[in-house]
Amino acid sequence: MNKLTGAGALLALSGMFLLIFKGIAMIMGQKFATADISLIQVLSDEKLDYLESFSSPALQSGIQSVITTPLYLHLIIVGIILAIIGGLLAK
Questions:
Q1: CB 3.0-4.6 Å disulfide test: which of 53, 70, 73, 79 passes with 12?
Q2: Is residue 52 over pLDDT 80?
């Protein structure tokens, strides 16, 4: 296992960890807001003004969906991508 595969596995596991805690909190009737953090909550409005400058509505929609995706999905997706890249480079 190389560094990229290890980093990908760590990111994917941390995303699944957040998802499991969110599920446990939902069963208990509590709110686990840490898993629901998205980039739109972290970035200021001035940094998001550039979205209107894109000419393609499909590109605007795609970026908007990436910005509003929860943290645990970002961690899992990036972890899987890094693990695949690390697996391909290990040969």
A1: 79
A2: no
